[in-house]
Every structure is written in structure tokens, then in C-alpha cells.
Recover the amino acids of this structure.
């Protein structure tokens, strides 16, 4: 069953992320806007601060968050909804230490997630994974898990809204 707007996800590629640093509140607002098509994928300022405190992302420079931190936060915001914390830590290390540079790793994950959302929404045929490594397969599977969870969440939100 095709869902309206369910496949309308387009995340900014690394080169399109803001070049000037963002303050904490701006980071949360910016990323929540970008991730809105996924439904319940959200970040708060407190969450971002905790990710810094627990060394999941680098500390801001003069209270400003740059592209690397934004790219890491996109990944964390998406993955935290389907992974327990211990696995999230491993997934972050895999993403940050992939054979790609940071920009390519971010762009690869965005492509995988967008493709998964399109497939789950019924707007695309599921292509054979282009994976070459175990880490790429994990990222492919993670993107699918997030897309399916967002689809299920939309179903129940619509069901609850129709009962009100």
C-alpha cells in the first residue's frame, strides 16, 4: 500500500550541509526539519549535548557545530530509533571509520536511507544491494529497518487519528 508523502525524504548531502557553524538550538532545529519525513526521528538540544558528553560526536568549536558533527548527528538521530545504545556506539564507529571519507560515508548512508524509504513506501522496486563489505551491508540493513519503523509509526499515527 502506497502512503502519501512517505517516500518524500531527501537528506542534504555533505556538501549541502551548512558551511558556517550552527549553535546548539540551530542544530536541533535544522536536523529536525531535514528528518521530519521520517516521523518520530527527532533530536533535542539536550540529546546533542549528551552525545558530545559521551563522545559520540566531537565537541563544538567555540559553541559552533560544523559539517562533521551534523553528518554524525544525522546518522545518530536515524539509527537511535532502531538500535540499542551499545549497538549504536558500534554503528557510529563503523560509519565514522568506514573506508570512505566522512563526506562519502554520509552521502552513502543518505542514499541508502532514501532508497529504503522509497521501497517501503511502495514507490520503487527493491534493487539488489550494492554492498561490498559487511559494514556497507549493515548500513543498508539499518536504513531498511528505519524505513520500516517509520512506515509502521505512520500507520499507527493515522489509525489513532481516525479513532479520535
Amino acid at each position: 500500500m502506497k502512503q502519501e508523502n512517505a517516500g518524500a525524504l531527501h537528506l542534504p548531502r555533505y556538501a549541502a550541509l551548512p558551511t558556517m557553524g550552527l549553535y546548539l538550538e540551530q542544530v536541533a532545529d535544522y536536523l529536525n526539519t531535514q528528518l521530519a519525513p521520517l516521523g518520530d526521528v527527532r533530536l533535542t538540544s539536550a540529546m546533542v549535548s549528551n552525545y558530545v558528553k559521551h563522545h559520540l560526536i566531537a565537541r563544538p568549536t567555540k559553541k559552533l557545530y560544523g559539517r562533521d558533527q551534523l553528518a554524525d548527528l544525522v546518522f545518530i538521530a536515524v539509527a537511535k530509533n532502531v538500535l540499542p545504545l551499545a549497538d549504536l556506539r558500534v554503528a557510529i564507529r563503523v560509519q565514522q571509520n568506514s573506508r570512505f571519507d566522512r563526506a562519502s560515508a554520509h552521502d552513502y548512508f543518505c542514499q541508502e536511507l532514501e532508497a529504503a524509504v522509497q521501497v517501503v513506501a511502495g514507490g520503487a522496486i527493491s534493487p539488489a544491494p550494492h554492498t561490498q563489505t559487511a559494514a556497507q551491508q549493515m548500513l543498508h540493513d539499518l536504513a531498511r529497518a528505519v524505513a520500516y519503523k517509520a512506515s509502521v509509526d505512520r500507520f499507527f499515527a493515522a489509525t489513532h487519528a481516525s479513532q479520535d
Confidence is low (pLDDT under 50) at residues 1-6. The chain has one domain: 14-157. Residues 14-157 form one domain. Helices lie at 24-35, 45-53, 67-79, 85-96, 102-120, 134-163.
